[in-house]
Predict the 3D structure of the following.
Amino acid sequence: MSKPALLIVGATGNNGTATIQALSAGDKKDMFTIRAGVRSEEKASALKKAFPGIETVKLDLDKPETLDPAFKGARSVFFILGNNENREEQAKAAIDAAKRSGTVEHFLFYSVFGAEYKAILFARQFRAAEEYLEASGLSWTHLRTIFFQENFFGWIEGIKNGALYLGIRDGKFAPLNVGDIGEMATNILTTEGHHGKAYNITGPELLDGPVMARIFSEVTGKEVNYISPDKETTLQSLLSQGWPEWQAKGLLELFEVFATNQAAVVSPDGEKLLGKN
Ligand SMILES: NC(=O)c1ccc[n+]([C@@H]2O[C@H](COP(=O)([O-])OP(=O)(O)OC[C@H]3O[C@@H](n4cnc5c(N)ncnc54)[C@H](OP(=O)(O)O)[C@@H]3O)[C@@H](O)[C@H]2O)c1
């Protein structure tokens, strides 16, 4: 009997790849035919080389003509948006395509921690898509994730020079590991009982800037000091590194949420999805 098709949108990114990795291991590997949505032949080849069992399909959320062929016959969807300002429109177009397919039984939506409060731009973008999905009639699950540990690779130059620049003052949050997210998504996609649920995912431990700097000191073997620059300095630094203005300003809003301890929680949802409690 042929296996049901799982379409992964955003398959070439951090979370998409982590999820394909988790789905390709052990007894999970025979559950789906993985259909990875890709925008370029080059990335399709690289992904197939890394995961020989998967299929790839051309899918660009900004090219409506690619949507119906990509969703055709898919039974499950893991939908991961990229870092695009038009996220809401992209998500709506994909949700419409999933509905038109007539075959999608479960739409797992990758979202952000705190989406439901709509307090900052990123939350509003993702919540608008969540709401559209909830009203679509499709069966859905939201996987709402907080700031990744892997983001700190972007801070590497400062860390190498002995400084962790992070504008969260004395706030705390619990950074999350992307490999773990792949495992959590895999659990949701391969077990029952997740339909109509929103999971709020944090890392396992609240950390503040000085503690993060100390961890970097320990792993690099050289002193790393925590420095919390003011908002304007952070904004100018992000812009000079090439961040688009909308995203840099969104990140500043997120840092303010962390600085004021509005996201200073450790949610149990992730550990549950990892089978740890
Ligand atoms: N960084 C964080 O701490 C954090 C926390 C929570 C949520 N998020 C959000 O979670 C999402 C996923 O994160 P990630 O790190 O996995 O992202 P990522 O590594 O940047 O991957 C994004 C994926 O989306 C694809 N993509 C981009 N534009 C597309 C389009 N027009 N049509 C089809 N596919 C497109 C990319 O394809 P290509 O390879 O072709 O570019 C890639 O596969 C992002 O929206 C991110 O902002 C981030």
Q: What stands out?
A: Residues 5-146+178-201+265-273 form a domain with the Rossmann fold fold (CATH 3.40.50.720). The longest helix spans residues 87-101.
